[in-house]
Amino acid sequence: MFGSRYLPCAECGESVDRSLERPHACARERWADYQMFGLSKEIAELEAGVLRFLGTPLGRFETWAAARLVRGQA
């Protein structure tokens, strides 16, 4: 079998040419995008949990209190 000379970087997902002698340096923006992509399921679950909380009486009170504080009425 022939192996590819390109492998994805475990940190940022970029295809890295293994035949090059210089070490790969991850771009910060690409690294952040790749990490967020890996966490997309957890992010969706967090968002759903926050929306569930905001639908409860305590969540509605917290929303009201935060709006009041932001408007300077506290």
Could you please describe the fold and organization of this structure?
It is a single chain. The chain has 74 residues and is mostly helical. The protein has helices at residues 28-38, 40-54, 57-70; strands at residues 6-8, 15-17. The chain folds into two domains: 1-38, no CATH class; 41-74, no CATH class. It contains three helices and two strands, in the order ββααα. Helix content is 54%, strand content 8%. A two-stranded antiparallel ribbon has the order 1-2.
What is the element layout, followed by pairings?
Layout: E1 6-8, E2 15-17, H1 28-38, H2 40-54, H3 57-70
Antiparallel strand pairs: 1-2
Shape: elongated
- First CA to last CA: what distance? 70 Å
Count of helical stretches: 3
Average pLDDT over all residues: 91
Strand content: 5-15%
Largest sheet: 2 strands, antiparallel
* Order of H and E elements: EEHHH
Oligomer: single chain
Helix-strand makeup class? mainly alpha
Order of strands side by side in the largest beta sheet?
A: 1-2
- Let me know the number of strands: 2
**Fraction in helix:** 40-55%
Radius of gyration (CA) equals 22 Å
- Low-confidence runs (pLDDT<50, min 5 residues)? none
Question: What's the number of domains?
Answer: 2
Features:
mainly alpha, elongated, 2 domains, 3 helices
Structure summarized in a few sentences:
By secondary structure, the protein is mostly helical. Helix content is 54%, strand content 8%. The chain is built from 3 helices and 2 strands; from the N terminus they run ββααα.
